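step: validate -> pass
step: tokenize input -> pass
step: predict -> running
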Amino acid sequence: MNAHIPQPAELPLAGIKVIDFTQVMMGPCATQMLGDYGADVIKIERPGAGDLSRTSFPNDHAGLVGPVFCSLNRNKRSVALDLRKPEARAAVLAMLDGADVVVNNFRAGVMERMGFGYEDLARRNPRLIYAVGTGYGLTGPYAHKGGQDVLAQAMSGVMYRRSDESLPLAVHATTFADYSAGMHLVQGVLLALLQRQRTGKGQLVSVSLLDSMIAAQMQEATAHLMRGREVNWGAMPLSGVFATSDGAVVMVGAFKADPVGDIGKALGLPDLAADPRFTTHELRVANKPALHKIFRERFASNTTAHWLARLEEQDLLCAPVRKLAETLADEQIAVNGMILEADGEVERVRTVGSPVHLSDAPVAIRRPPARLGQHTEEVLAEIGVVAGAGQD
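step: predict -> pass
step: emit ->
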């Protein structure tokens, strides 16, 4: 935890007001980062329900909010308004008139039906940066489809590409499409803020889950587009995950002048480099099953610690395959400031920090994740609206 909790005025986005209509993960992880670095993020939620992530995962603790919501919604203020009511929409328009950024991840047409479309808001507030996260893009044949992380994995080709084609197709266990798109959304907002400093004008910023997953495959996609060739780093013959007697090791046999020779020394196989099946990259690819059978037998004969030490002696890239709980307990995670803690109203919040470390703007939990509608009266008072307007 950071010893010094920076005040908003000290942070790079101090004075930036963000109106946040997002929910679940892609949008909230983006607006949380904006809040971490000083923006005043006002989260608009539905009365009685709020962001879907408040209830989308079982919460077996007496706390006011669950851990999934906590992971995505620190440093924000929560305003609960029923946007079906004209007075609530009028209140939001008053907020937007004084805002710098508005962010949503609704399906196409939802914001327009409420009167919050880009063209309408740009006329009212030409400096407004209008950021949208979608599943597939703002236009085109899939624009009105519901987007979701797993669907983006499938549609983008990410799910189909495995280190071994004999493995069954499967959902990736981490929601990296949502996270990647959320971070791209942050980049877009920051770039638009920089451009506004020169032009005085806001603009439309658009990010999609599909595009983010295509961008993540930039090497593989470019190799296909330019050469019609497959690039699969996970399928390289000198790399892989291998079970040991007490766990597993990942080894990457790359960036070495003589990787086969060095792997042979590490594994106690002095003749490996001389084996005619493995003398060239092409032969290793063709004979990968036989090569990996040798690797599996050797790694299974001793412990993870033993093999890590042997591989590191040969300056080979390697690491233990760990459970998340083991990773979170690692001293390096604490040194990197990746665990944030703060007292909430009922329970202590412990969550993941920002991977972006600024020496003069350390991230801290200045506002714990809010109760639904916790700041409604406060925010309405700031724009001169009587409390109670559109809250029920």
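step: describe -> The mean pLDDT is 94.
step: cleanup -> pass
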